[in-house]
Amino acid sequence: MNAPQGKPGQSAKPSEPVEALTERTPMAAPAFCLDEALARVAGETELLRQIAGYFLDDAPKQLAAMRAALERNDLPAIGRAAHRLRGTVIYLGAAPALAVLAQLEEAAGSVDPRAAARRLEELAPKLAALTRALTSYLAGEDDSPPA
Q1: Fold for domain 26-138?
Q2: pTM to 2 decimals?
Q3: What integer pLDDT is reported at residue 142 of this predicted model?
């Protein structure tokens, strides 16, 4: 018996690792998708607001830590900071930032600091866009498109 087929390039498995999902994420996706974020937190808007607030506080610290680690060629420190930040971003319906964080974490596991530097360069504008979107959301001005 043949296994069910998904769309071309997609697995038909109901539960895939985040890495598999983020590899296919179109970069034109919104920085923040409220519907997806609410689904991630089972509709708990107060929890989403807390996570968003935590991200706004922590993301600049983690980005600075990754940049400092890059200056030291400390790839494991970049990987740890990317992993920590990814643990928050995964709940925010932020596919573009999540995709780059997964790629950065992978690059940090390599022996090529240039790969990590490229991903870090890609990450900064994704985090800036997510910061703007979450700031608007927390201010009650959310205009993110539905999922």
Answers
A1: Four Helix Bundle (Hemerythrin (Met), subunit A) (1.20.120)
A2: 0.76
A3: 57
